[in-house]
Amino acid sequence: MLSAKSLFQEILDDDESFRLFCSIAAGGESQGGWENGRIAALVPPGLRELAPKAARHGADEDKHGRIFNALLKQRGLQPVAVPYETDYTLLLERRGIGLAHDRLSREEPLTERDVIVYLAHSRVTEQRASEQMRLLLRHFAGHPVIGRAVKMISRDEDNHLAYCHEELLRLARAGHGRTIQHVLRECARAEIRVYRDVSLAVMGHMGRVLRWPRPKAAALAAGIHAVYAYERLVGWRRMVSLAQPARLDALSGPAVPETEYA
User: Fold this and answer.
1) Which site in 131, 162, 172, 221 is 20 to 30 Å from 120, CA atoms measured?
2) Alpha carbons 57 and 160: distance in angstroms, whole number
3) Residue 79: exposed, middle, or buried by beta-carbon count in 10 A (0-12, 13-18, 19+)?
4) pLDDT tens, 142-188?
């Protein structure tokens, strides 16, 4: 019987599929680290209080990339090149979601709208990351190899999501509510399409590595399409709502070092 736990266990047990999984994850996290670091450096003068939080966000993402690379090293594996069609971060940028890398590479302060775009993009993508890590946490928190890493990353992703909610609500109270909702909806609708495409691509690569029979591959693809259909109809709404988080100032203070996960 297909289940999230059995599927990931199969990926975890095979060196080549595990190497691909960790390489994709490490690449995305490291890219997020660079983006947040640049945003922290370019925050406009009127929003400088965001700079240390964005920097902490970036430090966490960098840490996650190192954790995934450390998991590979523990098994004597080297990272592989991330296939273009599985690069979630890059494909979102190509759809015009978030702040473009050429914008972040310039030494030009961000505008207030740029900050809203950054936070809205993060609110949507961190929703996805938080949900994915909670799924792994439910099934693998006690795993001897990845359990502690999953716990740490899941906690961080929940903090990132709380930070996005809090900062967007603050900007909404300052009069940016309509802009925030417009950008959130645009991001959410693009993200669910990219997530579907990336999921299909990742499962395609995993299927070839693990030699899945055609009926199994077809069933997984059908499941991905079903999730997309649900998200296109109503599921996207969970990505655009804003609520005061239970934990405030979730990104205050320095990042917890990755040495504590092992």
Assistant:
1) 221
2) 7
3) middle
4) 999 899 999 999 999 999 999 999 999 999 999 999 999 999 999 99
Contact assessment for residue 196 and residue 228, using Cβ atoms and an 8 Å cutoff: yes
What are the angstrom distances between the C-alpha of 199 and each of 94, 120, 222, 241? Answer: 17, 22, 11, 24
Angstrom distance (rounded) from CA 137 to CA 7 = 15
Residue type, 170: R
Asked if the model's pLDDT at residue 101 lies above 70, the reply is: yes
pLDDT of residue 94: 93
In angstroms, rounded to a whole number, what is the distance separating the alpha carbons of residues 129 and 235? Answer: 15
Distance CA 177, CA 191 (A): 21
| Best CA proximity match to 256, nearest among 24, 69, 62, 48 | 62
Structure tokens at 138: 């439910």
The rounded radius of gyration (Å) of the Cα atoms in the chain is: 18
Which token pair is 197? 């495409």
DSSP-derived letter for residue 98 is: S
CB-CB contact of 240 with 125 (8 Å): no
Q: Is 43 within 8 Å of 115 (Cβ atoms)?
A: yes
Token pair 């900050």 in the structure block, residue: 115
